[in-house]
Structure formats: C-alpha cells, structure tokens
Backbone:
C-alpha cells in the first residue's frame, strides 16, 4: 500500500509528505471478579499521510498541512481523491512557513524494545499477567478486599514512517496496559480504581501494585470522617506524582511558549523565584524520556534533560513550533524521570500531615497552575495518631507550593514516570468538613 | 436533507453477510457491526495558527464480530476484508481468539451467557438523520474562513486576550448491524464548535470556553458568533477572580452545570454494567427517592435530537428514551446487551463502542433533567447569599459512593437576591449526590442541552454524549 500511496503522491505532484503506517494487534481480557466476561482480539492497519503545501498569502510565505486517513484496500480512485482533498485543504492552512527537520535513516540507539513481550505469544502474555493480577487476591472474609473487575490489554504495534526527504524508519512497540478496581465490603463498602501500563511483561510490578491497592482499599473501608476544612501539610504519593509534574512538562513545550501560555526560557530557574527561594524546597531535576525511537515527524527521539535543579534546560516540541521559536525540533514527550528528593517518607511524617493516597481524579491545570481533586483516601496525623479519612478535596496552586515542595528519596516507576514516590507540600487548602 | 448511505458499506455488505452466514453455522450467536466514519477537526488560533485533521478516534472504517460459543462471549475487530480473507478471519476467531482463555489460571472461570438474550426480535431498516448544510459542501476553505473571522474578533476584543481559538468538529458516519434477525443501517451527522478566549495576568492564564452543537451539519456554526462576547468577557473577568471560602452554599446552576451534574454525578451511576459489578449504589435505590420531586431525568438516543442521537446502538438495539428518575424516584437504569444477560434485564439501546476496535459498554447518550416552572430571575432573587455556577469544566463519576467531583470555572456571587459582579474561580463541587439532588428547590421553565465534548468510561472509551437541563437551585458544598 505504501508503494501505491507514493505513486499517487507523485501523480498529484505532492512534493512534501510523511506517511505513518501503523499495524496494531491486541489481545484483551475483561474480568468481572475472577470470571472472564468477554475476550477480544484486534487486528488494525492504518495509514496517516501528512501532506505539506507551500504557498504565498500576500507577502506572507506559508506552509500548510493536512492529514489524509488511508485504509488498506482503498481503490486507486478513492485513494487519489482522498490525498487530493487533503492537499487542497493544506492550501487553506495559512501557517507561517517552517522547515521540516532533515531526518534521514538515523538509528535510534537508546530505544529498547520489550524483550519478554517480544518472545511470548499473546496467549502466554495473557496468562502471565492474569496470574500477576490475581496473585494477591486471596481474601475470602467479608472485610477482606478483592478485585471487583479488571481489564487487561496486550498490545503489539509495528510502525513505519516514510518521508519525502528520504527517511524510511520502522520500529515495533509492545506494551501491557489495563485497569482494575478493588472493592472492600466491610465495615464500609468502598472501592479503588487503578490503571497500569508497562513496556514489558512486568508481572511483579503489577502484583505489587495490586497488593498496595488492596491494602489501601481495606484502610478506606475503615475511613468515615472527612478532614476538617483548613490548611494542611499535604503528602501526595503514587501515580499522582506524574500529574503534578505536568505543569513543568506542558509549560516547557514549544507550543505553550510560542502561544504565550508560558514564559519559560532556557537558563531561567522556573521553580524558584526571589520570593520562594528561601522556602527550602527540593530543586527539581527532570529528564524527558524517549519512549519511541522516532517521533511521527521522523525525528530521532532521545532522553533530554528538561530541568536541572529547577533551571530549564530544554524547550521541546514538534517541527513547526520549534522552528518558530528557533529551538531544536525534538519531538513531543510524555514519559519523564525525576531525580530523588532529600526527604524520606518517615521524615515527611514527623510533623502533622494529611497523606492522600487516593483521589477520585487528580488534575493539574497547567494554564492556571491550580491542582486538586476529591480525596478518596488519606491518612491524617494530628501529632498523636494517624487515622484514615475520606471526602473533601485538595485545592492548591503550584505557584504557592513549588518553593517548598520536598520530594521523597523513595522512588517508583510506572505509566511513563520514574521518580520520587511522594511529595510534601506546606499550607495546602483542603475543603473538608466544617468541624 | 438526509445523510447518505456509505458506498463502502454497501460494497462490503454481501461479504459481511457471507461471513455472518459462516459464523452462524458454527456459533449459537453471531453479529457483525460495520462502521464507515469521517470525522474532522478544524481549529484557528491567533498564536498557534490553523489545523485541519481527521479525528483520531472517530475516523474509522472497521468491523466488529461478536460470537457466543458454548455460552462464552468473544469479539474480533478488524479493518480489512475481501473474498480471500474470509477464511483467515474465521480461522483467527476459531483458533487464536477462542484459545485466549485456555491457559488462564485455574482460579479464573468464564461467564456463561444465554445467547438468546442478545438476538431480539426480527427487524430491518435503513434510516438517516437530517441536516441543513453539509460541512463537506461548505468545504475546508469555508470552514476555516468562518473560524478565522471569529478568531480575529476574539483577538480584537481586548489587549489582555493573549490567544484565541475557534473550532469546528463534525462526524458523518454510517453503521450496519447484521445478525440472524437483524439487518439495520443508519447514517448520522452531528457538528459542534466552540469559541475559546485566553487572557493572562502575570504567570496565570485564564480561559473561557463557549460551545455549540447539533444533530445536523455546519448550520450550527452560525451560532458561534453569539459566543464571542461572552467568552471574551468571561476570560477577562477571570483575571480578577478570587479563591472561594470552602463551604456549603445556596447555588443556582446554569444548564451546562446542571448537565454536568446529571451526567457525571448521577448518570454514570445508572449505567447497569456497574450493577453487574456491584459498583453502583443506584442498584439498591430502584423505586426509592433519590432526588427532589421536582426532578425527572431522561437518557436516550431518542430523548432529544443531539450529538448522541442514533437509530440503533453498537449491539443492534433500537435507540430509546429511558426515564431514569420520575419525580424524584429512581425508576430505571440504562443497559447494554451483555449486562442485560447478566442481570436478566433488557437492553435499553445504550451499548456503545468508542469504535469498532473497542468493547461495548453501557454508555449514556443524551442525558437531561426535564424543565420545571420557575423563572431564572425569581431563582436568583430567592437567594440571600450564594452563587451562580457557570461554565462546567470537568467531572468524574463515583457510582459506588455517589460522591460528587465536578469542577466549574466560575462562581458568581449572589447577595440579597442580586448578582454582585464578584467572581470566584476555580470551583470544585463536592458532597453526596442524593443530598444535592434532594436539595433542589427550584427548577427553571426551559432546558438547554449540548454536547461539545466526549465522555470516557473511567479514563478511556470516549464516546460522543450530550447533556443539559434547566437552571436548578440547590444547596452545594463548594471548594
């Protein structure tokens, strides 16, 4: 099909293009308790052809682009019409001219495809991860937590990128992802939701995550009180750490900077200001991790330091916005690693605290800097004893806390995040009970 | 005008019927869903420029086979079919798909399904929705030109507006559902758009988002013009917003906030696949008061003509209008076929897939509260101190505990029955859903509904939905 697409592009005299071909195969299991409700498989094959067109709009030199979706087996007439329509559309997209990176067939040495997943069949992969999923689910008593329901996906993708500049790149990507819900019926009937994503058959990681969730859910079943409304020293841990760092990730993207949503500049300290530098927070060192060998624009992806002790080192982004800013086109990143902090979990817990381990949904608004979420389970320590609490919500601003944030030395790795397990923040607003 | 049939589906239909026939020889139940969908997104921004791109989730051509083999349900999704591939599709289903469960741990068993529940009565039709203006005829140039004009007007409103966005999205799709008793085809089109203004002060950027949507074509884009001034004014106002003192207040919810409460706080809790898993408190409240007697709630593809209207769902069940709460009493949930088989209930036309590549779940469609009899001005006048909640921004369901987590962008202060002009942002709504719904004391006499976004099941499985209702007055915990 690629040959037919390229022939059609030549016939239409389309000179600049990028073809992204993706072949996806999945095996999917859907459980209700320990009963398999539905099993699924998927074979999907798709081509996304991005077409670029240069033109003048008055004095302005423009480059427009549009994307055509091409299906395998498309007839010649429909294929040509699809590409031609998209190419015409590109002529109405009057964006300022930019240069596509000159990416040839460069190797991507840092990319390590999943070893165990590459060797195991879909059937075998399903068995290994299902065993891990239910390994800790052994309780039978009414007050014992159990897996209420779960979904498991084994995903195999083959990607090929062909560009008009001569690049012809291929890679395979495999992953295991899914979600599970843990329920505990007594003394209160409660549940916890968790999702997971691993780049290989990381059965032990899944097993540990299930175990931790079973423990937390059991604790939540004991929690009856909401914390009283007020300001707290808050600890947030687990998967929510990744969300917290979205502020730095989003605001250092070329798109945010070019659009004026962010004033970040490389060389500036984006964490500490004159006002907050004495607050004693841990300086953040954050690295962008390449989870693919090439971006969809064929840019070779590599790990890049984003922040070093709070100082911005990189503005990252796609070809267009990077060109506008005069920065190196790096491709877009979603995976990050963050260096360990200076405080242990035990040290974080020396003073009174509210440790939130489960939100219904935790969000970071990178535009306003606000973060928050409704508390499903937290542990409140008043200086004498620790009790589980549920209800109320966190409502903070990154601008208020980034100077005093302390990161844990304990680390975690999952869902594209490798870094401190927890963060400690002083004076965060909690909307809770009117005690 | 009516949305036309898909030529692609027409071409493949004989092959799909041949495949169905082969499957029915072997399995007690078999069905095939075929989809041909074109979904486009357009955006014009002062700073980020213009984009035209297919919607990555909604653009598809594909097929989903569902079979029941010895009571066990399995599905295979694919997007290539011709004469030569029929045997390989059958081999994949009979070999790899059915083998998936063979090696699972002994502790795992398999749910046995009565295949008869899935089939239903014999029915055949081919129906289409109406539109006034086809966005494909307006063309990419026409759509971008219209959006550019709107973007320019937003930018010119005030120097504090740092960026603008005018967007359009439409989906034109055809679906075919084949089973032993069913031969259904539908052709649907919806369109939506939005005006977004972004204003900044220091490091903080504030945004206002004003959408429009319809079951139909690009005729709705004309309404975007009316949203320019409100979006710009709100974004500027937000620059001087304050943080609210957490507490419980008398509130009036604008219809989009009502819609978010209907959808997020209550609607997800009556999706009956959650009943199967014992994950929804609503299961224990059928026949009981869960809301004020002023409240009647509906969901369905046929409830109102909006972006989630269709003639049959992704399991071949006819789209309906389900009354969920009748004058405060919870009377019914909504249900997909697989859950109906578990529960001994009936499918309500709410079995929806993100695409042919995904599993069907119980999903909402168009979800609303009915109108009441109060006037909005009387509702405001009735409040000594409280807030008007505006611009729903996000929400998260909690069917298990009926905990509310909804966010709105603005709370407008009301003092002595009048709006003071003072605003607070952002606002988190918390509390217990029935407490909020039972506290509703006034309901306005008109409803508004819209569907500019998509709804996820948890954090995935995005489907188009609409929601809305009247202005409601309720006691709500804000943070």
Residues:
């Amino acid at each position: 099909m690629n040959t037919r697409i390229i022939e059609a592009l030549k016939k239409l005299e389309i000179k600049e293009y990028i073809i992204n071909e993706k072949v996806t195969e999945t095996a999917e299991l859907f459980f209700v308790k320990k009963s398999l409700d539905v099993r699924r498989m998927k074979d999907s094959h798709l081509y996304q052809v991005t077409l670029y067109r240069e033109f003048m709009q008055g004095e302005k030199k423009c480059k427009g682009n549009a994307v055509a979706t091409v299906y395998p087996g498309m007839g010649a007439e429909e294929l040509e019409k699809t590409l031609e329509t998209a190419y015409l559309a590109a002529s109405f997209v009057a964006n300022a001219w930019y240069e596509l990176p000159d990416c040839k067939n460069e190797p991507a040495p840092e990319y390590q495809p999943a070893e165990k997943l590459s060797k195991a069949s879909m059937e075998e992969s399903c068995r290994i991860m299902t065993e891990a999923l239910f390994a800790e689910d052994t309780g039978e008593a009414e007050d014992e937590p159990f897996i209420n329901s779960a979904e498991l996906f084994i995903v195999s993708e083959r990607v090929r990128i062909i560009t008009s500049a001569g690049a012809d790149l291929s890679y395979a990507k495999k992953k295991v992802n899914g979600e599970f819900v843990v329920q505990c019926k007594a003394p209160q009937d409660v549940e916890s939701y968790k999702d997971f994503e691993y780049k290989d058959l990381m059965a032990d990681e899944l097993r540990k995550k299930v175990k931790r969730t079973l423990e937390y859910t059991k604790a939540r079943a004991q929690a009856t009180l909401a914390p009283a409304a007020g300001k707290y020293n808050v600890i947030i841990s687990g998967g929510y750490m990744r969300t917290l760092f979205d502020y730095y990730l989003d605001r250092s993207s070329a798109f945010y900077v070019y659009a004026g949503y962010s004033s970040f500049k490389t060389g500036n300290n984006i964490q500490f200001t004159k006002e907050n530098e004495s607050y004693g927070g841990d300086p953040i060192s954050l690295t962008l991790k390449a989870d693919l060998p090439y971006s969809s624009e064929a840019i070779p992806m590599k790990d890049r330091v984003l922040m070093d002790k709070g100082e911005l080192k990189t503005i990252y982004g796609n070809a267009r916005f990077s060109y506008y800013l005069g920065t190196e086109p790096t491709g877009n990143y979603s995976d990050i690693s963050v260096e360990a902090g200076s405080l242990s979990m035990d040290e974080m817990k020396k003073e009174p605290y509210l440790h939130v381990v489960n939100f219904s949904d935790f969000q970071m608004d990178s535009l306003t800097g606000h973060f928050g979420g409704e508390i499903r389970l937290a542990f409140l320590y008043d200086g004498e004893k620790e009790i589980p609490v549920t209800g109320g919500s966190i409502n903070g601003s990154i601008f208020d806390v980034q100077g005093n944030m302390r990161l844990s030395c304990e680390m975690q790795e999952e869902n594209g995040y490798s870094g401190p397990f927890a963060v400690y923040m002083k004076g965060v607003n909690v909307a809770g009970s009117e005690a | 005008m009516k949305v036309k049939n898909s030529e692609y589906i027409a071409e493949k239909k004989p092959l799909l019927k041949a495949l169905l026939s082969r499957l029915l020889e072997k399995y007690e139940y078999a069905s095939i869903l075929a989809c041909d969908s074109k979904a486009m997104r357009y955006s014009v921004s002062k700073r980020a420029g213009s984009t035209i791109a297919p919607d990555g989730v909604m653009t598809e051509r594909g097929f989903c086979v569902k079979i029941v083999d010895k009571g066990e349900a399995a599905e295979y999704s694919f997007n290539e079919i011709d004469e030569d591939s029929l045997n390989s599709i059958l081999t994949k289903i009979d070999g790899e798909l059915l083998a998936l469960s063979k090696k699972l741990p002994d502790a795992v068993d398999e749910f046995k399904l009565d295949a008869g529940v899935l089939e239903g009565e014999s029915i055949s039709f081919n129906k289409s929705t109406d539109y006034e203006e086809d966005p494909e005829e307006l063309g990419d140039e026409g759509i971008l030109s219209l959006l550019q004009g709107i973007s320019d007007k937003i930018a010119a409103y005030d120097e504090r507006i740092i960026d603008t966005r005018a967007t359009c999205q439409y989906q034109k799709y055809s679906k075919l559902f084949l089973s032993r008793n069913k031969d259904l085809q539908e052709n649907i089109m919806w369109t939506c758009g939005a005006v977004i203004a972004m204003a900044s002060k220091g490091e903080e950027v504030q945004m206002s988002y004003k959408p429009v949507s319809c079951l139909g074509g690009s005729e709705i884009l004309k309404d975007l013009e009316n949203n320019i001034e409100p979006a710009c004014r709100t974004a500027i106002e937000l620059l001087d917003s304050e943080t609210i003192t957490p507490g419980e207040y008398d509130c009036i919810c604008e219809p989009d906030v009502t819609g978010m409460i209907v959808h997020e706080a209550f609607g997800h809790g009556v999706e009956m696949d959650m009943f199967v898993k014992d994950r929804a408190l609503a299961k224990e409240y059928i026949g009981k008061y869960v809301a004020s007697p002023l409240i009647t709630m509906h969901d369905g593809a046929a409830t109102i003509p909006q972006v989630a209207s269709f003639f049959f769902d992704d399991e071949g069940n006819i789209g309906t209008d389900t009354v969920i709460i009748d004058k405060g009493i919870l009377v019914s949930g909504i249900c997909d076929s697989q859950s109906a088989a578990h529960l001994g209930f009936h499918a309500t036309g709410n079995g929806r897939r993100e695409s042919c590549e995904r599993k069907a779940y119980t999903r909402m469609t168009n979800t609303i509260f009915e109108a009441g009899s109060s006037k909005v001005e009387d509702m405001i006048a009735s409040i000594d101190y409280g807030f008007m909640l505006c611009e729903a921004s996000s929400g998260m369901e909690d069917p298990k505990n009926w905990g509310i987590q909804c966010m709105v962008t603005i709370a407008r202060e009301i003092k002595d029955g009048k709006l003071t002009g003072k605003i607070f942002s952002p606002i988190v709504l918390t509390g217990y859903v029935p407490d909020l719904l039972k506290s509703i004391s006034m309901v306005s006499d008109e409803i508004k509904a819209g569907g500019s976004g998509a709804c996820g099941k948890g954090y995935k499985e995005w489907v188009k939905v609409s929601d809305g209702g009247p202005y409601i007055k309720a006691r709500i915990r804000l943070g």
